Amino acid sequence: MEDYAERIVERAIDLGCQDAVADVGVNRSYQIRFAQNQVAISNRWRDTSASVFIVHGKRVVASDIKDLTKIDDAVERLVKVAKVSQANPDYAGIAKGPFKYGRLSVDKRIVDLSDGSDYVEAAVNGALQEGAKECAGSFWKYDEEHFLRTSNGVKGYDRRASLYMSIRALTSLESSGHGVACATRLGQFEPWKAGHKAGRIAKLAKDPVGGQAGVYDIVFDPLVFGSLIDQVGGRAGAWAVLAGLSPFAKKIGKRVAAPSVTIVDDASADSIGRKRFDAEGVPTKRTAIVRNGVLKTYLHNTSTAKKFKTRTTGNAGLIAPDANVLFCKPGDWTRDEIFSECKDGLWLTNTWYTRYQSYVTGDFSTIPRDGIFRIKKGEVVGAWKDVRLTDNLINVWKSVAGLSKNVDQVMWWGEVSVPTFAPYALARKVRITRSAE
Amino acid sequence: MADLDLVDFAVDYARQRGATYAEARFEHQISEDFMLKNSVLDALYFGEDSGIGVRVLAGGGLGFAATNSMTKADVRAIVDDAVRIAKAAHRKDPIVFAPEEPIVTNWSVPQEKKLSDVPVEEKIEEVLHIDRELQALKFKIPARYFHQGNKQIDKYFVNSEGSRIKSFSPRVRLYYYLTLVHGGSAEQTSQNYGWSGGWEAVREIDMLRRVVEEAKSMQNSLEHGKKSPEGKMDLVAGPQVSGIAAHESCGHPTEADRVLGREASQAGKSFITPESLGQRVGSPVVNVCDDPTIEHGIAFYAYDDEGVRARRRYLYKDGLINEFLQNRETAAILGTRSNGAARASAYNVEAIVRMANTYVEPKDWGLDEMLEDVKYGVYMKSFMEWNIDDKRYNGKYVGREAYLVEDGEVGAPVRNTVVELTTPTFWGAVDAVGKDLEIHHAGFCGKSDPGQALDAALGGPTMRLRNVYLR
Questions:
Q1: How confident is chain A (437 residues) per 10-residue block, as mean pLDDT?
Q2: Which residues of B touch A138 (CB under 8 A)?
Q3: Phi-psi region of B467 (alpha: psi -120 to 50; beta: other; left: phi over 0)
Q4: Is A202 within 8 Å of chain B by CB?
Q5: What digits encode the pLDDT tens for the residues A24-41?
Q6: How far apart, in whole angstroms, are the C-alpha atoms of residue A242 and residue A256?
Q7: Largest CB tally within 10 Å, which of A140, B431, B446, B467?
């Protein structure tokens, strides 16, 4: 496969390109989707394709070449397109290699896994044991190889393999819970725990009543707090900042969260999103986006870094930089202390559909789903339904009052779009709204 | 194009391997995407995506496997994969598909001006031209992002029941984000337009006029906008607002796979159950349709990705829940026939139940007629923030362009009007439906795992809602 990557880069340079990147990826992932407590469909992929980035006279063209038997034709076509495109004056090159990368870390037992049925069964049984009646979700075995070559001397190889389970358990249409499990080692994969958690929440969410609008202290479960962390990572991308899609513009060095909040991007650490290098071949590393509540940096590739007079953070994508893997630094509270400090509030266990009225101000809303619980004096006193968190992203982050010592690795269907390590969190005076009837 | 005999081979081989049903879908998509940020062409994406996906029923289970390698060995390997993983499902109740007649046909979408004949330079110039005209307004627009995308999709579908369907579908899109600033305040918009057909889309959608008018309305809102009133009042909702409501609180909850729980973990379920057909959800003037056969709607198709002929579906009719969107699997469970709603976003994902062009059916009211009876209310033409819960019962749409209406007269702009209503409250309040159907507002509808962002048109005419709570 490295020959394909090499060939693409050589051909692009031969045809007059100044920069070229080729990442030949081999995808052998496998998935089981389940619903109504049984397998709905199983999916398997055998794809090999090249993500390509070429620059001819500052004219940038990106592509995916699927037919690797016709590389020369494909590259010639891309160069032809580049020649009639428009120059990008903001383009500032790609990183100069070669680089040294961290060691490969792949569990061969995951690579060799060919049947995930037992894991699905374990997750479903875990939920049913807690009292759930209906379960749905996905089991994933992610299995990818990457062969990277660039015209700036980068040669990289990566193997990424991990396991993931997402399970939603229901006792009725309006009583549900969600759990996820992530692992890079087969021995650490505990889908049944995700099932038990989903089932417990679903059972506890029995007979929810319509919630009331107001301002409440909120206990965020890791899955929903992960969504808020994901918003920070996504909005901290330099491309998003330049496009007007971020409340973090002109806020470097300013307070954007409570002093207890530190959010780091780090794809070099162990996680299901671990990777050795970014799309330019820059070794991934630990980058503090927010430290002690203060915005420290945007996430950069080489070009955006130059525009902001800084250095790449190793977050290049094919075109725009983005978050890799996010970590929220744990606090010093126990989970019980988080709950006991919530005197009059809500416990939110999951959310979806986060949308902004203004990315510039950070005014947004998101809709809690699965268990929504009324908390009084630290205790669950009932379940709610039909409410919406309607506030401002930076206000919510500034209102964080406590973080738990333990963090969970979470990722969930768009809402937590990259693997994220999230604690339980307590936030004060968050605005809740509900539909009028 | 690859050797299409391999598509037929895949189906025959799957039957030999024990599949009781097999289908293979080859897709070849050429895509061009031009990304213009603050007058700079950030990048041009040129993609040529192709491959084959095979779906089989075997041992009562459903298996799907895909590859982009069109060699006999690799096609054979994915068929083996699909049959093996289908059989491993060990389902208590076997999956069956509702019956369909085999179809042998070719269909394609006509292009007045072929996308392949338009030079790249001309396509780039179209976006640059819009950006220049926008800047000529001399408003303060610190962030301008345009994304113009074109797709040409060839498909060849074969199934073990004798269907052989070839199709060609060209599509054009423009979406943009703008940020206008005035007097220390900012206003943002995000708009997305789509067209099935050729480069004539630029003329037909009239993108330049739309962008310029939007910028002017944003400036007006920034200069003269007032706080939106709070309380119960009338709402006159423009085509974009009725379109998003049709999609979110009618189209999604009537997807049969959602009703049956197959998407419960991700996209969610529905407040509608199989027993809900015939129940009231809106006023008698409400008809909401989903129609893949609307000419030039971004989601036009003649046959779906299971080879079923497309047709218009009345999801809500006379205010009653009337019909679900079905594929062959859901239709079999519910004892009916598919109505051709199965679609996949690419060769490498299964076809599932999807909306196409979803819209509120127009009636005969003029905008002035609707406004003249409004004593006090808001005329909301477009929205920015929106969301809805996973059972599709609690929707929220926040105004982008909206105006106060007093005694039938449209007055000053009002900012960030919040419509946060339950689905029956929203549709139950509609008392008048206009004739000004607009169908080219497009979305990327997200569903399934792995996520399938799919072309969908969100349309409608202006509607009037009586006495609803706004803030």
A1: 92 96 97 98 96 94 91 93 90 95 93 96 98 98 97 96 98 97 98 98 97 98 98 97 96 98 97 96 98 98 96 93 97 97 97 96 97 97 97 98 98 96 98 94
A2: 265-266, 449
A3: left
A4: no
A5: 999 999 999 999 999 999
A6: 18
A7: A140
**B251 has a pLDDT exceeding 90:** yes
Summarize pLDDT for B277-297 with one digit per residue, the tens.
Answer: 999 999 999 999 999 999 999
pLDDT digit string (tens) for B111-142?
A: 999 999 999 999 999 999 999 999 999 999 99
Q: Do B69 and A48 touch (CB under 8 A)?
A: yes
Residues 44-73 of A with CB under 8 A from B: 44-49, 59-67
Query: At residue B50, what is the residue type?
Result: S
Q: List pLDDT tens digits, range A201-255.
A: 999 999 999 999 999 999 999 999 999 999 999 999 999 999 999 999 999 999 9
Residues 224-283 of B with CB under 8 A from A: 260-266, 268-269, 271, 273
Can you tell me the distance from the alpha carbon of B323 to that of B330, in angstroms, rounded to the nearest whole number?
13
Cβ proximity of B4 and B106 under 8 Å = no
Q: Closest by alpha carbon to A54, among A25, A19, A3?
A: A19
A421, β-bridge pairs: A327, A409
Q: Is the pLDDT of residue B356 over 70?
A: yes
Question: Quick check: A63 and B45 CB within 8 A?
Answer: yes
- State percent of chain B over pLDDT 70: 100
In whole angstroms, what is the distance from residue B29 CA to residue A101 CA?
36
pLDDT, residue A2, reads: 80
The pLDDT value recorded for residue A437 is: 82
Name residue B402's amino acid.
A
Question: Residue B103 half-sphere exposure, CB side, CA atoms within 13 Å?
Answer: 21
Domains and CATH numbers, chain B: 5-224 (3.30.2290.10), 227-470 (no CATH)
Residues of chain B with C-beta less than 8 angstroms from the C-beta of A66? 48-51, 68
Q: How far apart are CA A115 and CA B61, in angstroms?
A: 14
Phi, psi of B282 (to 5 degrees): -150, 180
| Sign for the pseudo-dihedral over CA of A121, A124, A128, A133 | negative
Q: Domains, chain A, ranges and CATH?
A: 2-204 (3.30.2290.10), 209-434 (no CATH)
Contacts of A70 (CB under 8 A, 6+ apart): none
Helix ranges restricted to H, A293-341: 302-307, 335-340
Asked if A35 lies within 8 A of B265 by C-beta distance, the reply is yes
Please give the structure tokens belonging to residue A203. 């059972």
Is the Cβ of A250 closer than 8 Å to some Cβ of chain B? no
CA A22 vs. chain centroid, Å, equals 24
Handedness of CA B276, B282, B283, B285 (dihedral sign): negative
The beta-strand segments (E) located in A245-378 are 263-266, 286-291, 294-295, 326-328, 344-348, 351-358, 363-368, 372-376
Give the nearest partner residue to B269 out of A78, A173, A364, using CB atoms: A173
- The pLDDT assigned to B217 comes to 98
Whether chain B has a CB inside 8 Å of the CB on A406: the answer is: no
Closest by alpha carbon to B249, among B268, B226, B232, B235? B268
* Both tokens assigned to B112: 């007045």
Question: In chain B, what percentage of residues exceed pLDDT 90?
Answer: 98
Closest CA to B69 of A1, A335, A406: A1
Residue numbers of A between 104 and 133 with CB closer than 8 Å to B = 115, 117
As a 3-state breakdown, chain B gives helix, strand, coil percent values, each rounded to 5, of 25, 40, 35
Query: Quick one: pLDDT at residue B1?
Result: 57
Q: Are the beta carbons of A42 and B49 separated by less than 8 Å?
A: no
